[in-house]
Write a structure and sequence with these properties.
Layout lengths: L3 E7 L3 E8 L4 E8 L6 H18 L6 E8 L2 E3 L4 E4 L11 H9 L4 E4 H12 L8 E6 L3 E7 L2 E2 L31 H4 L1 H13 L4 H9 L5 H9 L3 H25 L3 E5 L6 H15 L1 H5 L23 E4 L6 H12 L3
Parallel strand pairs: 1-4, 4-7, 8-11, 11-12
Antiparallel strand pairs: 1-2, 2-3, 5-6, 8-9, 9-10
Helix pairs in contact: 1-2, 3-11, 5-6, 5-8, 7-8, 8-9
């Protein structure tokens, strides 16, 4: 038997709960719908019922060490209040930690979902063995997280790592945060789709136009499919994604001089389409990157023998845990918080 923790990842439409032991082995996992239209009380009630169910399945696995929960949005970590959540409009100044603890009768640890993706990749993923790293997550929006000294870096008010709202085009596309030209407006799935529609509206992208007419559910994944088939307009969209990421990463490398920067989230699946532009921008814009003589890397942060990688090279690489990064990070929280 080995002790285990519960990790919870609350997404925009789904809720995932897993029991993961201290070695990172998945013991139990379940997924259920969590549409925002259900309302916050229903979502939290369903979450707590699912947590109880997973715990009951693990009664012979060892001692429960704690429960970590990842939530998208701005969180007051001291009070456990979600100030604002982009995918859940009714989660405004919502004391979610108290609501969960009241139902479960036990303490839980709340954390931003992008921070947990960083922690998951540091524990078991691309940054395994690397104590200082950053992640940029490319999904519906763009998030990010920092791990310094093996622990999440929150900043003064818990909002460190908002890389998605770094400006890359001062008078650029309007971002949902109200600013113009944010990274999120150029490197998210939403941005890819917007740029595709702009290309269609210009009348200069016949293949994109045909694809959008043929598929009512046309998505960023469809734009990527066209890109890998050689469509120049689709390829140009992902070059814009890579350029925006390269600009932001250049600033991060110059400012932080970390050994590793990880690109995660659903859009990272298009790595081969946008990563060349990242490295082109890095070589042009970051003297620190140039000084560390790095090359595009798919490597991980640990040697073949499981020992920490020791390098003076700046590594920019893809996440390897996919959508499970935040789930593993959530399960890691209790061990790091002395639960």
């Amino acid at each position: 038997m080995t002790n285990y923790s519960i990790g919870v990842d609350l997404g925009g439409t789904n809720l995932r709960i897993a029991a993961i032991d201290q070695q990172g082995n998945l013991l139990e996992k379940m997924t259920l719908g969590a549409e925002s239209a259900l309302g916050r009380d229903r979502v939290v009630t369903d979450m707590c019922e699912a947590i109880r169910h997973v715990i009951s399945k693990c009664r012979d696995a060892g001692a429960l060490q704690g429960i970590g929960i990842g939530v998208p949005g701005i969180i007051d970590l001291h009070t456990g209040v979600v100030r604002k959540s982009p995918n859940r409009p009714d989660w405004v100044d919502y004391p979610v930690r108290a609501a969960i603890e009241r139902r479960l009768g036990t303490r839980v640890i709340l954390e931003n979902d992008s921070n947990l993706a960083a922690l998951g990749e540091k524990w078991l993923g691309a940054a395994r063995g690397v104590d200082d790293m950053a992640i940029v997550t490319l999904g519906t929006g763009v998030g990010g997280g920092l791990v310094l000294g093996g622990r999440i870096w929150h900043g003064m008010t818990g909002m460190a790592g908002e890389f998605g709202h770094t400006t890359v085009e001062p008078e650029g596309a309007l971002c949902r945060c109200g600013n113009r030209g944010c990274l999120e407006a150029y490197a998210s799935a939403t941005a890819v789709l917007r740029m595709a529609r702009e290309a269609v509206a210009s009348g200069a992208s016949p293949d994109l136009a045909r694809a959008t007419r043929a598929n009512a559910e046309f998505s960023a994944q469809d734009v990527y499919s066209l890109a890998i088939q050689g469509d120049e307009d689709a390829r140009g969209i992902f070059r814009r994604v890579g350029r925006a990421l390269g600009i932001v990463l250049s600033g991060m490398v110059n400012a932080l001089n970390l050994p590793m920067y990880v690109i995660g989230g659903g859009v990272s699946g298009a790595w081969d389409a946008f990563s060349p532009s990242i490295f082109e921008e890095l070589r042009q814009r970051s003297m620190v990157y140039a000084a560390t003589d790095s090359e595009p890397s798919e490597g991980v942060g640990a040697s073949a023998h499981g020992e920490p990688a020791r390098t003076t090279r700046t590594v920019i690489t893809r996440a390897v845990l996919g959508s499970d990064a935040g789930l593993y990070g959530a399960a890691r929280l209790p061990s790091l918080n002395g639960s």
